[in-house]
Amino acid sequence: MQKNDTMRHRTRYSRLRAVAEPVMEIAYCFDWPSKVYDFVSPHPEINVISQSVRLADNNFKNPIRAVFVSDLHIGPTTSERLLTIAFSKIAAYEPDILLLGGDYVFLRATEKRMQLLGELIRSVRCPGTYAVIGNHDIWANEPVIAEALHNAGATLLVNKQVVIDCKGARIELLGLDDPHAGNCGGKYSTDDSADIRVVMCHSPEGLRYLDTTPFDLFLCGHTHGGQVASPWGPIIVPHGELCRRYSSGFVNHKDGLLFVSRGIGTVEFPLRFFAPPDFLVLDFCGD
Q1: Is residue 154 assigned to a domain?
Q2: How far apart are CA 142 and CA 126, in angstroms?
Q3: 146 in a domain, yes or no?
């Protein structure tokens, strides 16, 4: 694998987490929390959210399908069966583009977990797969995770842009670093020939770094929709003003559209309340 600027040391890794994670690794030996989840939820609910997005070229006649999925959290608190079901559903949509929103692991990036990550990604056969990094990936072992993504055929974007030519349309995709444990700084130019501009970041806090960068669509996760929520909204929300303001779903932000996924996996404990896992199916089309 070609080394790049994703090869960094952990940043903003609190003393509390430095103590808590080894304790959880021991307490969750043999991945027993995920087995409890399988027993309690033999038929897990996974929400599929669909959205049509109009391209700038109104004469575009060949729809492009992209799927965005985030927060897999492969580890002791996420059921492998749940992940397999989620990616089986994703594969059934036959996407042209697969977009991965970060936080691929919880706790350690073991060889077994990286093998599962690769199997999940490769189970979705599509022309292009693009990924960003999450805070848990940086805390765990970012170089190992970056290599697993690369070996599975995913292009990792850390403060980088690509223009995807697909079915005659041009999609400009900017992938930001994780705003909590990484560094989103930088100025980003735009491609005037692009039919649509998409930004992907692990967390909605990445919006803070786009004051002068226009976008049509911003895709992120991180919040889990609270993971523990009520019918009136999240009870537990990750740190950050924008995480609290945008906990899940679609919302208009300035001149663009923001989507916050609840993700698939879980951290700390294997249960969700009023915040079922989800992934997004995007259909880019003309008039």
Answers
A1: yes
A2: 25
A3: yes
6 lies in some domain: no
Kindly give the confidence (pLDDT) of every residue in the chain, 287 residues in length, as a single tens digit, with 9 standing for 90 and above.
333 444 454 456 677 888 888 899 999 999 999 999 999 888 899 999 999 998 876 667 788 999 999 999 999 999 999 999 999 999 999 999 999 999 999 999 999 999 999 999 999 999 999 999 999 999 999 999 999 999 999 999 999 999 999 988 899 999 999 999 999 877 788 888 899 999 999 999 999 999 888 899 999 999 999 998 888 888 878 888 999 999 999 999 888 999 999 999 999 988 899 999 999 999 998 76
For the chain, the domain total comes to: 1
158 in a domain, yes or no?
yes
What is the span of the domain harbouring residue 154?
15-285
Tokens of 232: 């009136």
Q: Rounded CA gap, 193 and 83, in Å?
A: 37
Q: Kind of pairing, strands 64-69 and 97-100?
A: parallel
